[in-house]
Request: fold
Amino acid sequence: MTKLKALIFDVDGTLAETERDAHRVAFNETFAAHDLDWDWSVKLYGDLLAVTGGKERMKFYAKQYHPSDPPLSDQYIAELHKEKTARYQEIITNNPIPLRPGVRRLIEEARAEGIRLAISTTTSPENVSSLLENSLTADAMSWFEVVAAGDIVEAKKPASDIYDYALKELKLKPEECLAFEDSGNGIRSALGANIPTIITVNDYTAHEDFTGAKLVLNNLGEPDQAFTVLAGDAGDAKYVDMAMLHKMI
Ligand code: XBP
Ligand code: MG
Reply:
């Protein structure tokens, strides 16, 4: 029997609902500050999430939605993104975004058991630390042995590179880990690295294809707030805890 050794968490949409009210707002504030006639509505942003990575998303948007405008240089996109990143951090520091149900409980339980923790995300590393320090605990970065984030790999999710990198750094086999994701791009990335994956959906991702997931849930649940199983078999469990995860793997 394989022993579960590490949990690897996606960030945006999985640990916290950061996209609509933090990333999106930071993009829009940056566009306005640069007199760019771009405004990403809640609905449009949902469509744009198909492209992972802020720089990649802006490039895609410019090409698809403003095809006759002169193309923006990589340098200008990088400048916009740097500013967007600073604005994002300001937003989540001033108004911390709560962790999703069950996230803190599961992470604390895993730590207490000596289960290793890692992050695998498309967003920039400084955004990960801002979120975790503001929404989990001040020294949260020391809780995660590996933070695989942003441009550390060339190809972002749905490519498996970021999970391959996390596995390499953890020196673990994929079957010794479990990944937690919220999106179709995320699960393709994790499964591409052969890591069993649990999905917690959100409003932006609920309609996506989660073929191959161990479980698809509305959230991780809490002892007094059972999860809803959308696909897969959770047995008798009503919320995700370490006992349930050890049985699953
Ligand atoms: C989600 C993303 C990110 C964020 C924006 O990452 O695709 O691009 O929307 O962050 P994940 P950046 O779900 O993998 O955590 O602007 O820093 O890319
Ligand atoms: Mg995500």
Summary: The pocket of xylulose-1,5-bisphosphate (ligand 1) is lined by residues 10-13, 19, 23, 52-54, 85, 121-124, 127, 157, 186 (CB under 6 Å). The first helix runs from residue 19 to 33.
